[in-house]
């Protein structure tokens, strides 16, 4: 329920009401605003009747939150959430671009690729150390060694590091090395992992499962936020459809849909969304045009040698061209985008 308090309500009055909401076993939320204070009551709302809030002298209105997801909904939180990754604000005016290889393969590979994406203006460096691969025979990632390489190279370049965490037992180690933790498509509904990330204190990039609806994605985000971590960035990465000409079908409908219903920032991953490097730039442009807050783009200094996802990885020159081309779109839709010194 959303409980809007009257203008004259003091902080002490609001806190007393919060105590009552908690006293009947509901989770309470305190949202002071410049005009009015709003309280939230989450849980089995039927018990709320016991408090007779409708007739409370300081309560202006009580309304249900219609969406199944509550904390991530715009009904509950009308303003955009801005998530900080390193020095960057994701979900504000500026477009956020994460570049880097699918997987961390070696220090030399991360240095070469990292320098290329940094020069082109990327705001963060990606690279998977724990790779969730469809086949057990494919490269599985370098594990902790990969985390250390990513941290070192990102640190030298002055970029925040983004990497995937695949299980609860690794959350602590990944937190020690990375600035933002990615939950991959195959783990979007690993609820124990989501809950652990709700307590990790770092930003989370939550990718949409390949067979998940937008509602499933928002409910997965709700798991993280309801454990106390509001720093969630959603990422559309394409879904499985009957179409076979591309690796996935990049669902750009989801972007304006999510932006209307949720306050969380949304990125698009056109690399996994298409599976083909020649489609990455047009789809990245389309993503920014339809309201995404940024993109995550796989890039490799030598894609032909990549141990994973080479066919969808951009060459460094392509990444640099993509950055300049995205800025044109960003400006056309009233956003800003900073480019590196090298372009
Ligand atoms: C990745 O980002 O490299 C990855 C494995 O993505 P997804 O989980 O979207 O398949
Ligand atoms: Mn990949």
Could you explain the architecture of this structure?
The longest helix is centred in the last third of the chain and has 17 residues, at 316-332. The strands form 3 sheets. The chain has an 8-stranded parallel barrel, surrounded by 6 helices. The chain starts with a strand and ends in an 11-residue tail after the last helix. By secondary structure, the chain is α/β, with parallel strands linked by helices. It folds into 2 domains: 2-63, 2-Layer Sandwich (Alpha-Beta Plaits), CATH 3.30.70; 83-332, Aldolase class I (TIM Barrel, Alpha-Beta Barrel), CATH 3.20.20.70. Helix 9 runs parallel beside helix 10. The mean pLDDT is 95. The chain has 10 helices and 14 strands. It has helices spanning 11-23, 107-120, 144-157, 171-177, 191-197, 214-226, 254-261, 270-274, 277-289, 316-332; strands at 2-5, 27-32, 37-42, 59-63, 83-85, 88-90, 96-100, 124-126, 161-164, 180-183, 204-207, 232-236, 266-268, 294-298. Phosphoenolpyruvate binds next to loops.
Topology:
Blueprint: E1 2-5, H1 11-23, E2 27-32, E3 37-42, E4 59-63, E5 83-85, E6 88-90, E7 96-100, H2 107-120, E8 124-126, H3 144-157, E9 161-164, H4 171-177, E10 180-183, H5 191-197, E11 204-207, H6 214-226, E12 232-236, H7 254-261, E13 266-268, H8 270-274, H9 277-289, E14 294-298, H10 316-332
Parallel strand pairs: 7-8, 7-14, 8-9, 9-10, 10-11, 11-12, 12-13, 13-14
Antiparallel strand pairs: 1-3, 1-4, 2-3, 5-6
Helix pairs in contact: 2-3, 2-10, 5-6, 9-10
Bound molecules: phosphoenolpyruvate and manganese (II) ion.
